[in-house]
Amino acid sequence: MSLGQHLIELRKRLMISALALVVGMVVAFIITDPIIRLITVPIVDVAAARGEDLNVEVMFTTVTGPFDLRIRIAFAIGILISAPIWLWQIWAFIMPGLTRKEVGYTAGFVGAAVPLFFAGTVVGWLVLPHVVEIMATFAPTGTSLFYDATYYYDFVFKFLLVVGVSFVLPVFLVALNVAGVMSGRGILKGWRVAVLVATLFAAVATPAADAVSMVMLAGILIVLFFAAAGVSMLFDRRKSKRQASLLPPEAAG
Fold this sequence. Notes:
The protein has about 250 residues and is mainly α.
């Protein structure tokens, strides 16, 4: 296609993606109440642990705060709801320019990255209550906790996003191996750095006082790194066998 045809095709894909996002946001806006109740579960647990005479609540500090929070939640959930449509639009736009092998690699990358991302968000959700509860223990006796709703939502959203993305990083290592940038042995040689980075990341992502959550998150990231190294080494072995089979008998001997 010419440049003009490419631009027309891009505009069409963007319009469909934007429409899907808007529809997803409308649906998400309707279900924001149960979502807000869900993300405030850790706060309710903290309130129960601290006693009925002390308050632990989410508060809004501006007139438009409740509406703004619902819009932000609707946008985030809308992106997830409409993901199959806008991902397909991206795929349909770039697929004509890919070879069959590149299409297979891309499909494999997406097929591995998406489940790992959601697995990461699930792990983040399991760790989140411990983070909130541990931080609440530092409040002096006899005080009340009031969380700003916007700040609390940003904290929850960013925490889940960071943990989810961290679970996808091993897929990028495998992608670099497939692209010939790094060998499996090269990835494995960096295990000391990987363990250090995973531990530091877990220490930053979780409160210093919550050692259990830190060890659990770091352990999962380390296992994923070694899994990526193992898969890369397997790919290298298959690649070596394939290249050896293509060599003439004299060269092989």
